[in-house]
TrEMBL record:
GO terms for biological process: cell adhesion involved in heart morphogenesis; larval heart development. Signal peptide: none annotated. This is Endonuclease/exonuclease/phosphatase domain-containing protein. Gene3D superfamilies: Endonuclease/exonuclease/phosphatase. It comes from Amphibalanus amphitrite (Striped barnacle). Residues 10-205 form the Endonuclease/exonuclease/phosphatase domain. Pfam families: Exo_endo_phos. Residues 303-327 are annotated as: Disordered. It comes from the Eukaryota. Residues 303-313 have a biased composition (Basic and acidic residues). InterPro entries: Endo/exonu/phosph_ase_sf, Endo/exonuclease/phosphatase. One of its GO terms (molecular function) is catalytic activity.
Amino acid sequence: MKNEIFVRSLTAHLDDVNHLLLTEKLDVLCLSETWLTGAMDSCTLVFPGYSVTRSDRRGRSGGGVAILHRSSLSTEQLTVPSAGSALESVWIQLTGRRQIIVGAIYRPPSGPLAPIFDDLHDQLTHVISKKKPIFIFGDTNFDINQQAKTGVREYCQLLHDLSLHQLIMTPTRPGPTPSLIDHLITNRPDLTTDSDVVTCNISDHDLIVASVAGVKSRLQPKIITVRSTRNLNQDALRLDLLLDDWTPVYQANTVTEKWDAWQTTWGPAIDRHMPVRRITVKHQSPPWLHDDDVQAALEARDKARLDKERTPCEETELGTGPSAHLT
């Protein structure tokens, strides 16, 4: 399953995105408006069981796109030529049994359109030339339900000329004036099933989900090494340690020698009473997401959004809080 989300600061929504990955069981999640910078190492973005491929906006704040994918999926990042327009994108190729290209794109709502269209055309032409199934997720800020709006007809014609299909047909940004600005674009609609828009409370944009044939990852078992305490007799261990000869530790002259002597005595006793075992464990979800207070906060947030949709007013429509958008 693939999706896309407009997060407006990924670091501020790590738990929300983790919860989404967990509840929706996503294989691939595309993100826009990550607001990441080169100073932020990807290792600080903790998504257990997932890897991050990203492209940060340069020269000014905001923007940025990224793709999260299960670590068990074989992937490589693609270098796709860009004309340097305001269009932001990142591309990966799944290199497993079915080779598929996935792209995340974002077009800021303002700025000249001609460079955007030229850049988008060149990038799409480049990935199409690889003759593989292509799936592109993103917020284009083109409401295709409003054909009279600036740039919408040109955008739709561009996709048509390249034999690409936009699969989302219902609004992705709810409210008094719903809009369909979050898109799923592909050259292989026959491989796609269950494309849908799902209510999401990370942002004022809803989540777009789709299942793609042949993409489901095979979960790899996680094997760890532990010391078994199942048959541990603490009194017997203490007795062995008491009877062991610790003289070499006291006679050693340096810290290193003392450490080596201590390990020589301690190690065999621990190995006898707490042998090393290799065990397979199931992937554990982030434990903090199961905290009662966190769950209560999530439920309160969901209720607030439902109240907003049922009784919209000026205060709820003009809020300035962070948003997250999913496709």
